[in-house]
Amino acid sequence: MGITRFPNGISSMASPINHGTYLTTGSVYYVDSNTGSNDYTGEDPEHPVADIETAIAKCSSGLCDTIFLMPNHAETISSSTECMVNKSGIRVIGLGTGLNRPTFTLDTGTGSQIHVTSDAHSAWLENLYVVAGVDDLQMPFHIEASDVTLKDIEYTDAASMEAAQVVVSSSAGSRGLTIDGFIIRNATDVTGAADDKDFVFTIPHMSRCEIKNCFLITKTTSFMIASCSGGTTGERVNWIHDNYLCNLAANTGLIGISSNAVQEFIINDNYLRGDSNSTAAVADLAGAEGSTNVWLFRNKYVSGDGEIGADILNDAMAS
Questions:
Q1: Which of 29, 40, 210, 225 fits as disulfide partner to 47, beta carbons 3.0 to 4.6 Å?
Q2: What is the rounded average pLDDT of the residues 269-285?
Q3: Would you kindly state where each structural domain of the chain is located, as residue ranges?
Q4: Which residue pairs, CB below 8 angstroms and at least 24 apart, start in 304-310?
């Protein structure tokens, strides 16, 4: 068993090491596009590999291996396979703050994405800055696995680029998705046909999903957070709380739940802002209002002209 070397002269042989706030007994790899080489081992920050694909290939499933992306690391992702997290328990942690965070530019094709496959349950992605480099990205974040965490990730459109049709999409059969501190800043329209690809977050068939502490400012052709039917019986509760949702498009909604959804939703303490001319529901339950599957409390709405509404208890928007 080899020695894992950490910054500041700390080494470990099969014993837990606390790198900042991250404790692991698995292997640790470093990635840096500025100083790295894929001929390096990537096992210490002085010898990082150059891209995330190489680091993921070095990881083992189920061992809580951790990949640290160094400050100012930058990559261009041009397909659905270049940034594919396909092993369980992997943590991808960006180091740095603000503009020094690791940056991924999704470019070339509309299918470019960060893809967490169905094999990568319990994967964790944190502190990444993701930029759209091409129009009409279909699915920048494609989440197929269960118990995945997306934390403190910022997504934005580059100049003259239209917003992606789906920023986060979770496939049928997955559960336990946590989206914490996700930031989206753009003011361009989301395009595409009315085929459930005009949302910010979609949660089809999701169970045990939690969306919290997110700051979302954008335009969509439909809802910002949407759920379709499905879910795992017995563990299908989803929780949406403590978010700022601002949809700048007229006549659109913020939270939509399909009338035939079997999931249960707790939606509370969200600050909701819509266009001043919008006539759509703020928390549109798409026919499910009054359902015993949905609980709404302490959600506040502010219109584009500054009008403040009361707590939103159903799909009626304050006028």
A1: 40
A2: 61
A3: 163-319
A4: 304/248, 304/273, 304/274, 304/275, 304/276, 304/277, 304/278, 305/276, 307/276, 309/282
